Amino acid sequence: MQFLANLMLLVASAGLPAGTPKGANDEVLAPPPGLVSLEGGRTQVGIEPKDVQELLDADPSLLPRVSSVDAETPRHTVNLAPFHLMVTEVTNEQYREFVKATGSRPPQLWGNEAIEAGKTEFFANPDNRQAKFDRKDYWLKNWEGKEWSVAREDLLTPVVFVDYADAEAYCSWAGLRLPTEDELQSATRGNTTNPYPWGTEVAPAKYAVTSELTGLNGPLPVGWIPAGATSQGIQDLIGNVWEWTTSPYDPYPGWKSRVYKVGRGKSQSEKESSPNWNGDHRVCATGSFELPLTADRCTIRRGTQRDQQTLGVGFRAAASQNPILDRAQSLFDKQVRLSSARADGVSFDIERAFGWLRWDSRASEFSEADVQVMLKSLKRVKPENKQYKVPEGYRVITGFHSIVFTPTMEMGSTTDKDMQRASLGQPIQLGFLSFTQDMLSPALPAGTYIVAYRHGGDMPEPSAEDKDKRSKGKKKGEEEEYQPPAWVAQIDLKKDNLLYFDVKTGELAAHVEGQDSPSVASTDPKGALTAITKKEKGVGADGKPAFVQVPWLSISGAIAANSRLKGRAFEYAFEIQPSAGFVDQDWRR
């Protein structure tokens, strides 16, 4: 145990930034495959009411729809942290990897043949001759077990017919997240107030896929008009398909309803702005191929029901400067927040999460032959594109792997003995640990676990509060007999234990006896995941018993003590043994 004590002192003196693996700052900042880094900073979001009036003066036919334009007001300044953004909208090729890996529902367009067969069967029933066949509804109810495919010429077309949950699921699988509305506007206009990545020029068909192109019956391949890319090489931030964001469809700060007018004298018309605000809806941004360039500005926003699936809605992925934080947030939202393993009142410090990440990726499989077939199939689109190249920086993520630890926000105790005594009835939850590959010791399958510490000692008697809860509403003599938690029977209560609770089941999945107790020290709550080696009995190269070097992982950190003890925290460290070859993989640490 002395080794762990020394390790804790080493980590406490290392001065690591919160949530940053030791010696890996530049790797954490590197963008994931297919994404580029953006500085963030001060960004002008939205437009002014006078800009709305100018649009109306130029095109009075917009007056009936002025509420949707006025929803972009007023312009205001936000300050964004640096982030990463995908260079293209997510394509059919990229989304196909997710569907194959997870067995998720393929988008409706991929199942056209199965849907047509279902339609034929539907109308073969005489009772349905006058009924309407709903393609979307049929696919939602019948997709499982059906054949689906993506035509090769459609590999680089944005994936559509994906709702908000679909987009979030892809991002989570890929170790990414959806962008915010502010991030998309920042990527499009930088620190300017320009309506387009290329500036202010309104030149239909020159920079973006909008309704001015004739012959369109859907979105075009990503980067179809590369002249409209940003200076960082990000394609199609104007037009092509609407893009999901995580932002609720709420008014901007300072928004108020206004009356807009067009025309003069007796022919003058007016309309009061009244957007249909709904915080449960999500903002779709960037516009689409169905709208003209005058509408497809960087500030366009549309409140969209989260279950909406249409031909004009897709998405692109983003990541925080440190993607470990995205992973921690996703795990908390989708697995930990409502888990029965999470003790009442326990909060987790997402901003201090730390760990290792890695991505598997490849270049597009779109060949020159596929390009020619695609160009031929789109020859009716005018102006015609005579050549096409896969956008620079485009990558297909084929897998994501991680090991991430997210510490508890605050312990609440003030002394070592106070913490040890409190842990007897309710183990002290140190944080949640998630990994995508099995661990050998303790033997745990890939998953997410709440890690807790319990000091050795008998279980305390239930408190008066617990007794009151059990007797509430009961008659005298009908009170429920106290039943200790199931994990109590699985451990030796006399020994210190580190407990791993499965967040899916809430049950104890593993425990390790003889762990060092967390202890109060004068330190900021920091953490690190470190590769170490141990000498263990094994078999040497000659087949004889020998001591061999075995790789392990050490997780060390601290949890803020009670808020009354400023600058002090409970330090801890524990070890886990990964599977063979785990440490040697190409981790971003």
Provide structural commentary.
It is a single chain. The chain starts with a helix and ends in an 11-residue tail after the last strand. With 589 residues, the protein is an alpha+beta fold. It folds into 3 domains: 1-20 and 322-470 and 483-589, no CATH class; 34-97 and 156-321, paralog of FGE (formylglycine-generating enzyme) (Alpha-Beta Complex), CATH 3.90.1580.10; 107-142. It has a 6-stranded antiparallel sheet. Strands 15, 19, 20, 21 and 22 form a 5-stranded antiparallel sheet that branches. A 4-stranded mixed sheet has the order 9-8-5-10. The chain is globular and about 85 Å long. The chain has 13 helices and 22 strands.
The tally of structural domains comes to: 3
Helix content: 10-25%
Q: Low-confidence parts, pLDDT < 50 over ≥5 residues?
A: 1-28
Q: Biggest sheet: strands side by side, in what order?
A: 12-13-14-16-17-18
* Shape, per Cα inertia axes: globular
Return Rg in Å.
29 Å
User: What's the number of helices?
Assistant: 13
According to DSSP, the number of beta strands is 22
For the report, how would you describe the main beta sheet? 6 strands, antiparallel
- Ends distance: 26 Å
